[in-house]
Write a structure and sequence with these properties.
single chain, mainly alpha, 16 helices, 349 residues
Length: 349
């Protein structure tokens, strides 16, 4: 979860800087030349301030933020699709060779890491599901949301493939800037030269301010439950006000304190793709794939419906083979990332 928050901070700060630079100076360095220091750190401060500010509560208090984030994702994804169609119409289709193993094998870690990273059900799924009534509607909710999300992401990916995949010039080059260009590590940079669409797409990572509080709140609640932090404070007799975590102000203080490691990381790490690869490929493989698959397998062995004589409306129709597929995928992901680390292969694209 720390890795996911760091990704949001870095991408948010980068989009903040580039968005302002291209909007007012029409180049990548205008903002930095104007303020005479690296504006990335200003972006980190702005992003962090608002992210923590909106973390003064619990998951249920962030319902409006969740709705806003969902709408923004649909809008920006739609605009990216429109932008891709524009480039295809303007410059023609630019698809790369579908199977080019000599070049593509280097990026397996990114593919597996990115794929695992987008399985975001770990964002306090229990806290989000619990208020849903009746419980039997949860299966429909997940089914419809997955179908809609899959259609949008497939459309976006295929259009990106036809618009940019064979190009080799970088979008964020300081000289000879030319669009359309190679798919950027921050995909929204591919649309920087489009009036209106470019600004909205480019500022989107900064708008993750609406999504990070969910992560902050979940991280805060999890750490306070798992680690004996309160016991240590009580024993030391210092900062006792932090024990009153039922108050919004104290919740916010905890969010700020537990965000300190994030600032320490993002001040020195600015490669978005590296954060995604390792967070998704290593941590995500365990948290999102291996641990849940193990829990499902153990729960089925206990046959809780028979034990408690109560029907489980959320019981899945997927059998044991799906558990094995999940574990195989996790193993392939971990191996690909380990190979990347050991060989130093691959790039940031």
């Amino acid at each position: 979860m720390y890795g996911a928050i760091c990704l949001k901070y870095v991408s948010g700060a980068e989009s903040f800087v580039l968005g302002i630079s291209y909007t007012f100076w029409h180049n990548e360095t205008g903002f930095e030349e104007f303020i005479h220091f690296d504006p990335y750190y200003l972006g980190i401060f702005v992003f962090g301030f608002f992210s923590i500010y909106f973390s003064f509560g619990n998951i249920e208090n962030a319902k409006v933020l969740q709705v806003v984030t969902t709408l923004l994702r649909f809008i920006v994804t739609g605009l990216m699709c429109i932008g891709s169609l524009y480039y295809i119409d303007k410059a023609g289709s630019k698809p790369a060779k579908v199977f080019n193993w000599g070049d593509q094998i280097k990026y397996l870690a990114q593919v597996f890491g990115n794929t695992t990273f987008v399985f975001i059900y770990h964002h306090s799924i229990s806290g989000i599901i619990y208020p849903v009534r009746p419980q039997k509607d949860i299966k429909k909710m997940f089914l419809y949301s997955n179908i809609i999300g899959t259609i949008f992401l497939l459309t976006e990916a295929w259009l990106a493939y036809f618009a940019f995949s064979s190009l080799d010039n970088f979008c964020d080059a300081k000289e000879n800037l030319h669009f359309p260009c190679k798919t950027s590590g921050l995909y929204n940079l591919n649309f920087l030269d489009l009036p209106g669409i470019g600004q909205i797409c480019n500022f989107y990572p900064m708008l993750n301010i609406a999504a990070v509080p969910i992560l902050n709140i979940t991280l805060r609640n999890n750490l306070l439950d798992v680690l004996p932090i309160k016991h240590y404070i009580k024993k030391r007799g210092c900062c006792l006000f932090l024990l009153n975590d039922h108050k919004r102000l104290v919740k916010g203080a905890w969010s700020a304190i537990l965000s300190i490691p994030v600032f320490c990381i993002v001040f020195f790490t600015r490669d978005v793709q590296t954060l995604v690869t390792y967070t998704g490929g290593l941590c995500g493989s365990f948290i999102l794939l291996i641990f849940p698959a193990t829990l499902v397998y153990m729960a089925r062995k206990k046959d809780c419906e028979l034990r408690y004589n109560e029907k489980n409306h959320n019981k899945t129709t997927f059998g044991t083979p799906w558990i094995m597929i999940t574990l195989i995928w996790a193993a392939m992901t971990i191996i690909s990332v380990i190979v990347k680390v050991a060989t130093g292969s691959g790039g940031g694209e």
